[in-house]
Amino acid sequence: MTRPGTTDGATAATGADSPWTLRDYALIADGERGALIDPRGEIAWLCAPAWHDGAVFNGLLGGPGRYRIRPTDRWNVWGGYYEDGTLIRVSRWVTADGIISCREALAVPADTRRVVLLRRIRAVRGSAVVDVDLDVRADYGQHPMTRTRQEGATWRARSGALCVRLTGAEEARPGPDGGLHARLRLPEGGTHDLVLEIATEPQNAPLDPHSLWSATERWWKRAVPDCSDTAAPRDTRMAYAVLNGLTSATGGMVAAATTSLPERSDTGRDYDYRYAWVRDQCYAGIAVAAHGPHPLLDRAVRFVADRILEDGAALRPAYTVNGTPLPPERDLPFVGYPGGSDRTGNRAGRQFQLDVFGEALQLFAAAARHGVLDTRAAEAATLAAEAVEDRWTQPDAGLWELEDRWWTHSRLCCVVGLRDLSRQLRTPASADWSRLADRILDATRTRCLHPDGHWQRADDDTGPEAALLLPLARGAVPRTDPSFSLTRSQVVRRLADDGYVYRFRHGDEPLGDAEGAFLLCGFTMALAAHAQGLHTEAARWFERTRSACGPTGLFAEEYDVAQRQLRGNVPQGFVHALLLECSALFGRAADTVSSAGW
Fold first, then answer.
1. b/e per residue, 512-537, with b = 16+ CB within 10 A?
2. Does the structure show a pLDDT above 70 at 144?
3. Is residue 202 scored above 70 in pLDDT?
4. CA distance linking residue 24 with residue 549, whole number of Å
5. How confident is the model at residue 397, as a pLDDT?
6. How far is it, in rounded angstroms, from Cα 505 to Cα 509?
7. Of residues 201, 242, 196, the one with CA closest to residue 31
8. In this structure, are residues 102 and 41 in contact, taking their beta carbons and an 8 Å threshold?
9. How far is the C-alpha of 540 from the C-alpha of 545, rounded, in Å?
10. Which of 14, 371, 538, 571 has the fewest C-beta atoms under 10 angstroms from its C-beta?
11. How many whole angstroms separate alpha carbon 437 and alpha carbon 157?
């Protein structure tokens, strides 16, 4: 099928290869931007200098620009792994004559003005011959490399407004389009370093690979805790690594590293997730707080507090990581990932989503519980509570960013947040917040509790809703309240299949036809079962959901159960956050059982 404005030869014209299934991509990230690496050794996607800026490598969407390292022997099998507790990736190829690896990372600590990409090739077994191709195309492919020149051991070039440096490729030769090509030969056991820098202005600081690698290794060692006290230590360390990689120094965490990857082929459900959703930020902070105090919690509190102090009751659902409004949607001149589109920007930034205030209150309460809520954040918490009081009766777009309605989930989130805050912040307003929570719960119970006793999606929609499990698990009603058990049973019966959980029903369509299983909901189901003391069942939901990743260990938003494929943008930050929260809580429960001698 040919997309409007393209031809069947669109990808051939840009030189892009066919993309891989989403489960096969790996991520390296430094908090300010992230790169997707495919099994061929190509950087298929990288935006610079920031997450929301134009991509310089656009192959994921069928656009120009590439940085590829691969064996010249095309008869090979690919693999790879992350070094534990980091986003340092080791790509690996077994060829007919040997084994070649490439260690890859974005250098940290990061600089917002420049990205430094480290790649170390190793001939693991036998000698190695690899091809290196570099073609930087700034601003979504609009600007080829120009002024390409060699200065000693360093190549320099420009791509639009960006300055490019490459070291380690002295023997490279420029092509007619300004890009560089080199063929490297390594003896068995030999290594070769390449360092690529893309910056907003010319740089002259040495690009010493050994010091850059050492600094990067030290940074990751400090950033990710041991996690041996959790239910799934290695996956939890991976979750910490992903959240660190997606979180800017400003505190803003992008929802995912990519744009326009389809949730369902040719349905128009593909969006730009390279922005910081306040809700997702709260999920990450609350999850980390379940494990213990950590800089990620501090950053989440700072970012959310800044947005509330600036915008008050007019808080937007999402911002750039710099705290600015989202840009309007526009199309890119690419063919797009198969089944998806090629858009940037996001319209959700203009919506009113009431639950965001409730999640912010829960985040601030979690910070107060650990003694890390400063006076500025406490002021933001008060403003958020006041916004709930002013706006809780208004219809909103809700968690799923749909039409404005009286969504049950939004109100229950506010109930949890107000109660948590009233317990953690002892101020003259604490009693008022508790009474407001009771008033919202009473009104919501009157309007949104089904005659059969379970909570329904909205006052005018009696259908089941998996998102309701999260505020219920966090205490919107007592754990012994019949509505909790009845709602969870309703979700299990009508929204779960083969151990996976879906968001809600799409008319009469069977589960899995309209969209994939929603991994956030699988982990919230596990939290809900755990909250009710059903620890074995909680473990089953947790284990089933955390299996829904690719060989790289990254999660997308959705999982196509029938095809065992990821769907939507990758990696999805809030899925990794909820895995972390489950693992922390379940690990603590296991320790309690063990210490009790059960």
1. bebbbbbbbbbbbbbbbbbbbebeeb
2. yes
3. yes
4. 10
5. 97
6. 7
7. 242
8. yes
9. 9
10. 371
11. 59
The angle subtended at Cα 506 by Cα 505 and Cα 508, nearest 5°, is 90
Residue type, 340: G
CA dist list (Å): 371 to 234, 364, 382: 28, 10, 17
Q: How many residues does the chain have?
A: 598
- Taking the C-alpha atoms of residue 266 and residue 106, their distance in angstroms, rounded to an integer, is 33
Q: Please state, in angstroms and rounded to a whole number, the distance separating the CA atoms of residues 44 and 65.
A: 8
pLDDT at 16 over 80: no
pTM metric for this prediction: 0.95
pLDDT digits (tens, 9 = 90+) for 442-487: 999 999 999 999 999 999 999 999 999 999 999 999 999 999 999 9
CB 69 within 8 A of CB 75: no
Of 158, 165, 220, 279, the C-alpha closest to 28 is 220
- Reading the block at residue 332, the tokens are 């890119």
**pLDDT over 90, % of the chain:** 91
Question: Considering only CA atoms, which of 242, 207, 204 is closest in space to residue 223?
Answer: 242
Name the token pair of 401. Answer: 């960013």
How many CB atoms are located within 10 Å of the residue 218 CB?
A: 12
Burial bucket for residue 152 (CB in 10 Å: 0-12, 13-18, 19+): exposed
**Nearest-angstrom CA–CA distance, 281 and 573:** 9
d(CA 280, CA 545) in angstroms, rounded, equals 19
Rounded CA-CA distance 526/543 in Å is 9
pLDDT (0 to 100) of residue 3 = 36
Q: For position 413, what pLDDT does the model report?
A: 98
Helix (H, G, I), strand (E, B) or coil at 132: strand
Cis peptide leading into residue 4 (ω within 30°): no
Dist. CA 322–CA 541, nearest whole Å: 36
pLDDT of 566 higher than 50: yes
Distance (Å, rounded) from C-alpha 214 to C-alpha 211?
5
Q: What are 87's two structure tokens?
A: 């986003």
Nearest 10 degrees: Cα torsion 223, 226, 229, 234? 100
The residue to which tokens 């260990």 are assigned: 553
Q: Which two tokens stand for residue 497?
A: 């299949």
d(CA 254, CA 34): 10
Closest to 534 in 3D by CA, of 484, 477, 471, 467: 484
Question: One-letter amino acid identity for 158?
Answer: R
Sheet of strand 55-57, all strands in order from the earlier edge strand to the far edge: 26-29, 34-37, 43-47, 55-57
pLDDT digits (tens, 9 = 90+) for 226-253: 999 999 999 999 999 999 999 999 999 9
Task: Tell me how far apart the alpha carbons of residues 101 and 90 are, in angstroms, rounded to a whole number.
Answer: 6
Q: What is d(CA 59, CA 132) in angstroms, rounded to the nearest whole number?
A: 16
Are the C-beta atoms of residues 91 and 77 closer than 8 Å to each other? Answer: no
pLDDT band at 265; cut points 50, 70, 90: confident
For residues 157 and 145, the answer to whether their CB atoms sit within 8 Å is yes
Exposure string (b/e) for 457-466, b if CB count within 10 Å is 16 or more? bbbebeebbb
Q: How many other CB atoms sit within 10 Å of the CB of residue 387?
A: 22
Q: How is residue 245 written in tokens? A: 């990689």
Structure tokens at 549: 């990743």
Above 50 in pLDDT, residue 597? no
Among residues 272, 230, 237, the alpha carbon closest in space to that of 255 is found at: 272
